[in-house]
Amino acid sequence: MRGAVLYEANTPLQIEDVSVDGPRDDEVLVRVAATGACHSDYHVMDGTWHGPGYPLPIILGHEAAGVVEKVGSSVRTTRPGDHVILSFAPNCGRCRMCTIGRPNLCTGMVSPPGRFQDGTRRHRKGDMEINCFGRGMSSFAEYSVVHESAAIPISKEVPLTVAALMGCAVMTGVGAVLNTAAVEPGSTVAVFATGGVGLNVVQGAVLANASRIIAVDLLDNKLDYASSFGATHTINASRQNAVEQIRELTDGLGVDYAFDAIGDARVSRACYDAVRRGGTAVVVGMAPTGTEIPIPATIAGEEKVVKGCFYGSTRPAVDFKRLVDFYQRGALKLDGMITRTYSLESINDAFDALSRGENARGVITPTN
Ligand SMILES: [Zn+2]
Ligand SMILES: [Zn+2]
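Above: query sequence and zinc ion SMILES. Below: predicted holo structure tokens.
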């Protein structure tokens, strides 16, 4: 089988003949039908995320859907032939976080960087072992092995290209609004950075019946995407002061909720400044380790809330099916989100387009 290997930051992914081990008892082998090009992959490719936490060589890819090829002996939730959305955050189902209904924060599936929980790696080229992304996933390949909890069966009527997006951008963006923030109908919302995740924050705000949805970005084409997905107002922050504009659009108050969909300390701070007294700033994007958000110590007087959001506070087994339902009744616009599809051979073109901010989402189809 083929996989796209990153050997060194700032060099192109290399398409290699690789083999895959598994599945083990509690794992699933999935033929990857579609996998999105996401900023989290790009952060490793361009060296923003580096060091011992991101060992190379690695096969990246964490936003994917496919068809179950084979299951381990103890797997009960899925079977060969099922269409599945993959989750990049497997959960144990037994730890305290899992049992209180917060499986995205599971502490029972800790694994060494680049490896599965049992310390092994699954892709190899000859004698060379290749690292996986996060807690056990490598979807920039024809086949990926994941833990049972990370393969959620869905209806076969949903195109797998669309289903792939639900595995990261859609879950993160929509989940930030519906799960993490629990935005009430009629609320005012601002979304900073309308890439793949931010556009889905916009869609989540539409689902939540927000009264105003203000999109902020530096690129006009991304603001056009935001409008087409339901933003009621747009602000190009390269030309205007976003916080001042947001106040102007909300009778001087600020919005009820602001979302940082990029993970940049200055943007997070702008979200804090853009919310009204008692409002909530949600940090959705993953900032580089070691950075800090400066928050005024006078926070008590304004009762503002700053909230982190990992993976849309997802409970994959519940939420992926909910996203599919939203899509099937036309409440989530996802067909228009896939600007282009790419073969595995042209995966580097997908990331060139991502680095230039061209696509709403580029999707790679390794086995089509
Ligand atoms: Zn992602
Ligand atoms: Zn757990």
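The mean pLDDT is 96.
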